[in-house]
Design brief:
Family: Belongs to the bacterial/plant glucose-1-phosphate adenylyltransferase family.
Shape: globular
Radius of gyration: 23 Å
Distance between the termini: 62 Å
Number of helices: 10
InterPro entries: ADP-Glc_PPase, ADP_Glu_pyroP_CS, GlgC_bac, GlmU/GlgC-like_hexapep, NTP_transferase_dom, Nucleotide-diphossugar_trans, Trimer_LpxA-like_sf
GO molecular function, one term: ATP binding
Catalytic activity: alpha-D-glucose 1-phosphate + ATP + H(+) = ADP-alpha-D-glucose + diphosphate
Organism: Sphingomonas lycopersici
Number of strands: 29
Mean pLDDT: 93
Length: about 425
């Protein structure tokens, strides 16, 4: 569908990415960075997925609201996303919480993070607003969601996932009628409503909302005047529209981007260490559930100028090689082995070391004879020679952050305590 000028609807839209959250369940990974700034997939950051979806969908006006420890996130966006050109009616605004409305308050909630920047949004004059969460892993064409929004005459269109009803209590859940009109919106219900005709499944919110801009402004201004509001889209704005307007569900399956070999609609909230670990290792499968090699829907990120990966030594027991692994640029695997692992940019592995089921973030150094299994190693960590992790659960518990699924997170402070 196109507007009256013949352009895709995405060209009349602005994407507004909410990227201020800490993501505390990622524990020490977010001690010094916001969740959207956490590394993912060998080269990217989590936020690159929402931003790439917007660009690939044809959206050329983007705003990103930041708050918690935003320096690394802002630095990444300045480096990776500085190609927008105002002379082509493109824009990329980074919007830190700056007490613009009140000198006493930062962003109070997701809705307030948009409300405080109404004047900046209005200056771009978008006809439609797409509000996005900046902390999920997925590929989606927002143009298709915009088309449904216009065709349905909705006041708000809410992106949603089909999830097993038994697992639905962890999400904001929508009750809908046969026409996908939302009749109720409940945050983490004990008894989730099911999909009509499908009692085993429920519709869960993805945290993606489409509005006409003038209507969104009206709702934000109304909500700002409510003394008891939490200033939240899921808790306040959407439930109000469900009761007093027309809210429609958009199913992720209708706009999910899949390459030919991708058989499922891939969406992950990598909000826990176990979920983050598994989503990264998903990429090592022979036929991965999420295809990062899809040139038709690239995941844009900061392209660091660096040397290719290198594998050296070819002796029995000291052979540099990798099996079912992703090895990024500037890595050196020197007489070592990586199995079902991700080595991010600049990782160095010393002779006779090994990593198995490992997510090694940028610029780590793995010492000689070290053996690491089921680990996440934070960026810049130097693993001492001979360190063994993943073979003695009780010892790992005392030294590192170990999850219920037996994944160990290792950061610099933990290594410093060993020395």
């Amino acid at each position: 569908m196109r507007d009256v000028s013949g352009r895709p609807l995405a060209r009349e839209a602005m994407a507004y990415v909410l990227a201020g959250g800490r993501g505390s369940r990622l524990r020490e990974l977010t001690d010094n960075r916001a969740k959207p700034a956490v590394y993912f997939g060998g080269m990217s950051r989590i936020i690159d997925f929402a931003l790439s979806n917007a660009i690939n969908s044809g959206i050329r006006r983007i705003g990103v609201a930041t708050q918690y420890k935003a320096h690394s996130l802002i630095r990444h966006m300045n480096r990776a996303w500085n190609f927008m050109r105002p002379e082509r009616n493109e824009s990329f605004d980074i919007l830190p919480a700056s007490q613009r409305i009140s000198e006493l308050l930062w962003y109070e909630g997701t809705a307030d993070a948009v409300y405080q920047n109404i004047d900046i949004i209005a200056a771009h004059a978008p006809r439609y607003m797409i509000v996005l969460a900046g902390d999920h892993i997925y590929k989606m064409d927002y143009e298709l969601m915009l088309q449904q929004h216009v065709n349905s005459g909705a006041d708000v269109t809410v992106g949603c996932l089909v999830v097993p009803r038994k697992d639905a209590s962890d999400f904001g859940i929508m009750a809908v009628d046969a026409n996908s009109v939302i009749t109720d919106f409940i945050e983490k219900p004990a008894d989730p409503p099911s999909i009509p005709g499908d009692p085993a499944h429920s519709l869960a919110s993805m945290g993606i909302y489409v509005f006409e801009t003038h209507f969104l402004f009206e709702q934000l201004q109304r909500d700002a005047a409510e003394r008891d509001s939490k200033r939240d889209f899921g808790g306040d704005i959407i439930p109000y529209i469900v009761k007093h307007g027309k809210a429609v569900a958009h199913r992720f399956a209708d706009s999910c981007i899949r390459a030919a070999e991708e058989i499922e609609e891939y969406w992950r909230d990598v909000g826990t260490l176990d979920a983050y670990f598994e989503a990264n290792l998903d990429l090592t499968d022979t036929v991965p559930k999420l295809n990062l090699y899809d040139r038709d829907w690239p995941i844009w990120t900061d392209q660091i100028v660096s040397a290719p990966a290198k594998f050296v030594h070819d002796e029995e027991g000291r052979r540099g090689h990798a099996i079912s692994s992703l090895i990024s640029q500037d890595c050196i695997v020197s007489g070592a082995v990586a199995r079902r692992s991700l080595l991010f940019t600049g990782v160095k592995m010393g002779s006779w070391s090994s990593v198995n089921d490992a997510v090694i973030l940028p610029y780590c150094n793995i010492g000689r004879h070290a053996r690491l299994s089921r680990v996440i190693v934070d960026s810049g960590v130097r693993i001492p020679e001979g360190l063994v992790v993943g073979e003695d659960p009780e010892l790992d518990d005392r030294r590192f952050r170990r999850t219920e699924n037996g994944v160990c997170l290792i950061n610099k402070a933990m290594i410093d305590r060993l020395i």
